[in-house]
Design a protein that fits this description.
This protein has 374 residues and is of the alpha+beta class. 35% of the residues lie in helices and 17% in strands. Strands 1, 2, 3, 4, 5, 6, 8, 11, 13 and 14 form a 10-stranded mixed beta sheet that branches. Helix 3 (47-61) packs across helix 6 (155-183). The longest helix is centred in the middle third of the chain and has 29 residues, at 155-183. The model has no long low-confidence stretch (mean pLDDT 90). Bound molecules: fe (ii) ion. Residues 218-316 form the Isopenicillin N synthase-like Fe(2+) 2OG dioxygenase domain.
Length: 374
């Protein structure tokens, strides 16, 4: 099954009230409602920038562990700098509603078994890409300054490469947030403004395939993201599976080469739409396609580290934003839920979306995944 491809160029190059833009925005909203995900085409994005970024991150994560440890900030809940492997737990392994989601999937469509609560064997770097708010934030810990690695050969390349690729993805995803708002019948700036001062993160993950390269190894267990929208550049290794909300099917993600990105809905978008758009479940595993790529890269680039980098950007709402379902969208969510139920698709227990600050929602999610002490 292929995900819908949404063209950001149409939105950027035509008036907002033109029929082409209106139609493309409706397709974007519908893709998020049906699949929780879409493929985004944006001519401004450069494949070369992604490649330069992947090279830098492969080099960074190939460093010895003592070097990487210098960039850890456990006192800030790892929300900046590096997180080493086997720290973060897949939320689903400890979360009941999530196990219920797995139960209701057809056995052939289920993720690899995450029981046993083992943390993920993946490392990650958080690089904040924020606009400082003109007000005092209640959530200082979630808005800490960036860590720059010290090692010669990496230090000089770091900031320009991270900022270049990070800005490409940030621009693409914040424009898509405008498209989604328009497509849902809201003013274009609704989500973009709510996320203007969000603690957005360029958040590449790294998996050492020389250590964790066996078939069916879970690199990141079945979970949803806690932010608003997540955007990914193309990884050099396949292995990302996503679940389409209204189809129950597991989809092996293939992002076409060129100016294409993958976007997935997160928990903040689910909350704000009262469940009309659901956060998309996903996992990263070593499958046959991953193994085939490992062999190909070993032969073509014998001197390069065998590290799977996922080029991920988490777009957040502002920490001080009041998160509560938009009434018209919550009504539509209830209507859709009833319609699905009548079609024989039981979505399980109805989820409550109590009003709260975005910063509180983030802190409560971090406790679940063992990054923040409760
Ligand atoms: Fe994720």
């Amino acid at each position: 099954m292929d995900l819908p491809v949404i063209d950001l160029d149409i939105f950027l190059n035509n008036p907002q009230n033109s029929p082409e833009v209106q139609a493309e925005c409706r397709r974007a909203a519908q893709a998020l409602i049906t699949y929780g995900a879409l493929v985004l085409h944006d001519s401004r994005v450069s494949e070369q920038d992604n490649s330069t970024f992947l090279d830098l991150l492969e080099d960074y994560f190939a460093q010895p562990e003592e070097e990487l440890k210098k960039d850890e900030r456990p006192e800030l809940s790892y929300q900046i700098g590096v997180t080493l492997e086997n720290t973060e737990k897949p939320k689903c392994a400890v979360d009941e509603p999530c196990l219920d989601v797995i139960q209701r999937l057809d056995p052939a469509e289920r993720p690899l078994d995450i029981a046993g609560h083992a943390p993920d064997p993946k490392c990650r770097f958080f690089w904040r890409m924020v606009e400082q708010p003109p007000y005092e934030t209640e959530f200082l810990g979630l808005n800490a300054p960036n860590v720059t690695p010290e090692a010669p050969g990496i230090k000089e390349r770091w900031t320009p490469v991270m900022d270049q690729w990070g800005s490409s993805m940030k621009n693409a995803v914040s424009n898509l947030a405008e498209m989604a708002a328009l497509g849902l019948g809201l003013p274009a700036e609704t989500f973009k403004d709510a996320g203007r001062y969000g603690p957005h993160l360029l958040a590449p993950t790294a998996s050492d395939l020389s250590k964790y390269g066996k078939r069916d190894t879970i690199l990141a267990g079945f979970h949803t993201d806690l932010n608003f929208l997540t955007i990914h550049g193309r990884s050099r290794y396949p292995g990302l599976h996503i679940w389409a909300r209204n189809t129950g099917k597991r989809i092996a993600v293939k992002i076409p080469p060129g100016n294409y990105l993958l976007v997935q809905a997160g928990k903040q978008l689910e909350h704000l739409t009262g469940g009309l758009i659901k956060a998309g479940y996903h996992e990263v595993v070593v499958n046959q396609a991953t193994l085939d790529t490992i062999e190909k890269r070993k032969a073509a680039f014998p001197d390069r580290p065998l590290v799977r980098i996922s080029s991920t950007f988490f777009w957040h709402l502002s920490s001080d934003f009041d998160l509560a379902p938009i009434p018209e969208l919550a009504d539509e969510a209830r209507r859709l839920r009833a319609e699905q139920f009548n079609l024989g698709k039981d979505e399980g227990r109805e989820v409550e979306y109590p009003p709260m600050k975005v910063g509180q929602q983030v802190q409560s999610e971090l406790k679940h995944i063992a990054l923040m002490a409760s």
